[in-house]
């Protein structure tokens, strides 16, 4: 139940995040000045917080989405399996988010 | 209400009306498109994350040159189109489930589709500009 509503919530959050992708591409096409402005915004504190949130939302939606695709084949519907795989989505999303941001920190931060 | 009243109000046979209700019209197509775009986004989404991470400290020229590479431009356009398509399908279900007032529901459904088309076109145009101008 909770897992299902989080899937929807992260989906809606990611739909808002698509605007960021558009902004990034437009700024890159617009020239050096607009791109640097985009980099300053994404590297700022609110920008980083948003990016962090979106990265987790993406990885959660990705892991749980794969889980749903597997369930669409018709497997994993026993209640213990169902609960276990939902925790797998949560764990997987946290691991992927930590890996990505560990990489960012190792590269000397996002700014 | 007798069957006669129904016929007077609406000249269709009641069975004809009932048959058109629910997801019996385009529900399967919606369901299938959502899964198809989901499967594509597993691959394209992971690729996008890798590309973004590879550009972490890239300067403007490097970032532009990376996006301009044919395979990257192609996959980026594929990613953006699939992303907006999947977003519309998902948002549509959420709106249909949680917006009780009909006119608000329809307005939102129209609005997200307009926005998604604009977003997709703007993104594709941006990638093409980057890929095709030296």
Can you describe this structure?
The complex is a heterodimer of chains A (111) and B (134). Chain A is an all-alpha fold. Chain A has one domain (2-106): 3 helical TM bundles of succinate and fumarate reductases, CATH 1.20.1300.10. Chain A contains four helices and no strands. Chain A has helices at residues 2-30, 32-43, 45-72, 79-106. In chain A, helix 1 (2-30) packs antiparallel against helix 2. The N and C termini of chain A lie far apart (38 Å). Chain B is an all-alpha fold and 134 residues long. Chain B has one domain: Fumarate reductase/succinate dehydrogenase, transmembrane subunit (3 helical TM bundles of succinate and fumarate reductases, Up-down Bundle). Chain B has six helices and no strands. Chain B has helices spanning 3-9, 14-19, 27-54, 60-68, 70-98, 102-132. The longest helix of chain B is centred in the C-terminal third of the chain and has 31 residues, at 102-132. Chain B is elongated, with a radius of gyration of 22 Å. The A-B interface holds A 8, 11-12, 14-15, 18-19, 21-22, 25-26, 28-29, 32, 35-36, 55, 58, 62, 65-66, 68-69, 72, 100, 103-104, 107-108, 110 and B 35, 38-39, 41-42, 45-46, 49, 53, 56-57, 60, 63-64, 67, 76, 80, 83-84, 87, 90-91, 94, 112, 116, 119, 122-123, 125-127, 129-130.
Helical content of chain B (DSSP H or I, runs of 4+): over 70%
Low-confidence stretches of chain B: none
Q: How many H/I helical runs of chain A?
A: 4
The CATH architecture assignment of chain B turns out to be Up-down Bundle
Task: Give the overall silhouette of chain A.
Answer: elongated
Give the ordered list of helices and strands of chain B: HHHHHH
Distance between the first and last residues' Cα of chain A? 38 Å
- By CATH's scheme, which homologous superfamily of chain A applies? Fumarate reductase/succinate dehydrogenase, transmembrane subunit
The computed structural class of chain A is mainly alpha
Computed Rg of chain A:
17 Å
For the residues shown, what is the average pLDDT of chain A? 92
- Per the CATH scheme, the topology name of chain B is 3 helical TM bundles of succinate and fumarate reductases
How much of the sequence of chain A is in beta strands?
Answer: under 5%
Q: How many separate domains make up the residues of chain B? A: 1
CATH class of chain A: Mainly Alpha
The percent range for strand residues of chain B is under 5%
